[in-house]
Amino acid sequence: xxxxxxxxxxxxxxxxxxxxxxxxxxxxNGDELNLKSKLSQYVSLTQYxxxxxxxxxxxxxxxxKDILRLTEYLMTx
Length: 77
Known about the structure:
The chain is an alpha+beta fold.
């Protein structure tokens, strides 16, 4: 799932925390970082992208409920 234009990283992290299954960030090199880990969230969503706005990222969610939760966030953000 590609996600575009995350303006509020903290709110996005709150949504990630509510997810029940594994959520992974897929890097440009194809590596996957576990976004359920607070340390991975911090490193990948702030330091990795280098700004408070994130223009685009690809994530994988194991649970269909989590995909729905993320989609609902994107529709209201």
